Amino acid sequence: MSSHPVGDSVAVAVRRDANVLFVRRAGTDPWTGIWWLPGGGRDASETLADAATRELWEETALTVTANDLERLTSVVATAPTGSRRRFTLFAVDAPGRAVQLNEENDAATWKPPAYFLSQPLGRFRQRSPLMPGWIDDVAVPFIQHLDSRPR
Fold this sequence. Notes:
The chain has 151 residues and is of the alpha+beta class. The protein has helices at 48-60, 121-125, 131-148; strands at residues 6-16, 19-25, 35-36, 39-41, 70-78, 84-93, 105-111. It has one domain: Nucleoside Triphosphate Pyrophosphohydrolase (Alpha-Beta Complex), CATH 3.90.79. It has three helices and seven strands, in the order ββββαβββαα. Strands 1, 2, 3, 4, 5, 6 and 7 form a seven-stranded mixed beta sheet that branches. The protein is globular and about 40 Å long.
C-alpha cells in the first residue's frame, strides 16, 4: 500500500439525449487539445459533489445542485511518482441554458461518450508520464461506464 495520500478529482457527464458535453482543453499543458468532461480537483473544504458543481459552473456556467448529480463510479489511479488520486464520475441532465466556457477550455460539443475514443490518444499519451495512466485507468473506464448505461 502506498504511503502517499489520495487527492480527489471529479468529472461531470452532462447528458442531453444520447450525448454528453465535452469541452476541449486550452492552454499549453499536456492536456491542451483533448476533449474531456468538465471537472477538476476537489478543494479541501468541499465534498465531491460540491467540487463537481463548482467545476461545472466554473468551466461551463451551467448551474446544478449537488442533489441533481448522480454519482456513477470512482477509480484510484497511481502516477509514476507514486502519488495517488481518486477520480469520481458524476452525471447530470443538461440544464436548459447555453454553455459559456471559461479560459480553461476553447470549445464545447455534444457527442456520444465514445467520441472520446476517436481522438488521437496515442499523441496525448506521449505528452506526459501521467497521460497513459490517466487515459487507461480513468478516462477509458469512465467512457465505457457511460456507454454501458441505459438512457
